[in-house]
Amino acid sequence: MESTSRPRALLSVYDKTGIIEFAKGLDSLGYELVSTGGTARKLREAGLEVIGVSDVTGHPEIFDGRVKSLHPAIHGPLLCRLENESDAIGLAELGYPMIEVVACNLYPFSDAAAIEPPLEDLDLLEMVDIGGPTMVRASAKNHVNVIITCDPEDYSSVLQELNSGQVSLETRRKLALKAYEHTATYDSAIANELASRWEGRPEDSDDTEEQTRRLPNTMSVAAYKMQVLRYGENSHQAAALYVDPNATEGETLVTAKVEGAKAMSYNNYSDADATLRLCRALSTDEWPNTPHACVIVKHNNPCGAALGKTQLEAYEAALASDPESAFGSIICVNEPVTMEFAKALAPLFLEVLMAPGYEEGTKEILMEKRNRRILTIKSPNGRLAPLPRKTVRKPIEGGWLIQTEEAPVIDWNKAKVVTENTPTEEQIASMKFAVRVCEQVKSNAIVMVQGLATVGIGPGQTSRVEAVRIAARRAGERGKGCVLASDAFFPFKDGIEQAAEAGAAAIVHPGGSIRDQEVIDEANARGIAMLFTGHRLFRH
Q: E-strand spans in 97-153?
């Protein structure tokens, strides 16, 4: 191969944002441009002189382009350690000019996996890039000698440093790290998609044993930093928001449209997640006469939740549950915001409101209060989609816990009445609602409801009886005749005693304590109807 004194830049990108300007900048600095396929065509159309990879290697592409850049004429210069005398001499003897700059980013595999109808396995595997990741990894490995750019946002700063005469080691390391993050994300997307196809996702099975079998042998997590947050849970903690590459635009909390003068905080997002989860859990066809759901959350715990015939009715009932805690809260409704609801919200100090849509003119009313944020969660047919089963991760020291999570799936036909008094149909309906809310409250959790609205919530206590006391105190007189739900069994009769004093007429909980009979006897003595579901609802 004929030697040249000009350094080379290798350009092969899927995302062609800014590549022409970058190439022109490199050309003006004396770089010889080497490129492949669509990138080469785009650069030539811009009037730039480009050498094809096949001209560099002296070998045509083979197997329909499967092999084109995997050649010593490419990877020799990419991996040559110029600081190593024998490497430098070897490269010179081969006659390969050094490749000093590489621009390479990869086709987003997730896009191929999302094609409808789905690609067949072999067609999907054809979308797996081999040469690109190899170039990126090789360049990053040899970053002392090769500048690797995989993000168009870095082009201008690289050109600035090249114009100054030298790209610093700090910049080279930053770019190399970004390159490895790029290939790691790419590999994670492939592994996760193939695991989904060949093993199945845990959340796609209704059977717990099958879910267990499908849990991944290796946990691959890939997410992109979407924005840096002002701080974390407290001001001394750093934080950022990351987005799942598979998240549907506008349909999730992270991808939702945010409007308002003030940016969302870490705590806002955390509380909003809890609010949205519960609202989705209540956004079902289970209560056709009360289709409107409203949920109010403060510090990751619901302080009010209700279903209503109208949106305003649901809101007023949810607010009445704990109006004091609703100050500075986050609210979610499952239907587009109505004008009467927007007007009712006007006096309330509210951090965030979430909804699948907003009637004309409501946003203007809502935003009259400074620092309010409104989020639009795109939803099918304008109604918030129900809570799906999903696989969730919890970090602990040295690793992660992984489990499936979903709204309570209780076979109410198998629920067991264990007391002399039988719950009425109205109480059963309240129980079903109370259990949905209780599942989203931090344990130990107690929820008291009247009809389809909470009147008292006792969250996150180390003692179940104390959770009852808190719920009862918040309910006050509204606790008389209520239905009470517990996320786990009552270990002692004292919880029943407190519930009775609060006015509970019916209780629903999983049962399963060695002292169940003692608890049942106390309920009978108090005239309380009690139902065992056999379904524990811990949330820690």
A: 99-105, 147-149
pTM check: above 0.70: yes
Share of the chain above pLDDT 90, in %: 79
30 and 122 inside one domain: yes
* Domain extent for 179: 8-194
- For residue 35, the domain's CATH number is 3.40.50.1380
Q: Convert the pLDDT of each residue in 366-405 to its tens digit.
A: 999 888 999 999 998 899 999 888 888 888 888 888 888 8
Two tokens, residue 386: 């129900």
Active-site residues: which are they?
141, 299
Place of tokens 């081969």: 94
Count of structural domains within the chain: 3
Greatest extent of the chain over all pairs of C-alpha atoms, in Å = 99
Q: With 60 as the cut, is the pLDDT of residue 127 above it?
A: yes
Q: Do 334 and 428 fall within a single domain?
A: no
One domain for residues 434 and 367: no
User: Smallest Cα–Cα separation from 64: which of 17, 127, 120?
Assistant: 127
Q: Render the burial of 408-420: b for 16+ CB within 10 Å, e for the rest.
A: bebeeeebeebbe
Taken as a whole, the chain contains a residue count of 540
CA dihedral 165, 171, 176, 178 (to 10 degrees): -130
Q: What φ, ψ does residue 41 adopt, rounded to 5°?
A: -65, -45
Judgement on whether residues 351 and 480 belong to the same structural domain of the protein: no
